[in-house]
Design goal:
The chain has 140 residues and is α/β, with parallel strands linked by helices. The chain has a domain of 75 residues: Nucleotidyltransferase, domain 5. It is built from 3 helices and 5 strands. A 5-stranded mixed beta sheet has the order 3-2-1-4-5. Helix 2 packs across helix 3. It starts with 14 loop residues before the first helix and ends in a 7-residue tail after the last strand.
């Protein structure tokens, strides 16, 4: 009796791949909120038009309620705590290297208006042509 010949199977069982994909999806959904980075601020909630996406990463200065400032340039992993003198120096270096980089200020709601104007003045002295203010959209 000749041995029975097996024909190659031409189907792929995709069920294990789907199971792995769903597990990865759940892991990423659970981990995504933990990956949010930045400085915790209570931004003013005002209706405004969303900004157009720029190809360049923006220079963002965040000011907390106690007046401490943080600088985030592009996709740095963590914002860096800085003083006013350091802000002008670092902003000047970034603006010399990339003159059309968008510049924004994020200020806490409880922060005095003069503090935000002071930071905007420092940024303009560093070479920023325009400085935008970031807010959060109001919750409906």
């Amino acid at each position: 009796m000749p041995a029975a010949r097996r024909r190659p199977m031409s189907e792929i069982n995709v069920v294990p791949y789907i199971d792995v994909m769903l597990v990865l999806l759940v892991i990423f959904m659970a981990a995504a909120p933990m990956l949010a980075q930045g400085i915790q601020l209570d931004l003013p909630k005002e209706p405004s038009e969303p900004l157009e996406r720029s190809e360049q990463d923006p220079l963002i200065v965040s000011i907390q309620r106690d007046g401490s400032m943080y600088l985030n340039v592009g996709n740095e992993e963590e914002p860096v705590s800085i003083s006013q003198a350091e802000l002008q120096d670092r902003a000047m270096k970034v603006l010399r290297a990339r003159p059309d980089v968008p510049v924004f200020v994020r200020g806490d709601t409880e922060l005095p208006y003069g503090s935000i104007v002071n930071v905007m003045t420092i940024l303009q002295q560093a070479g920023a042509e325009s400085v935008g203010l970031l807010t959060e959209p109001p919750s409906i």
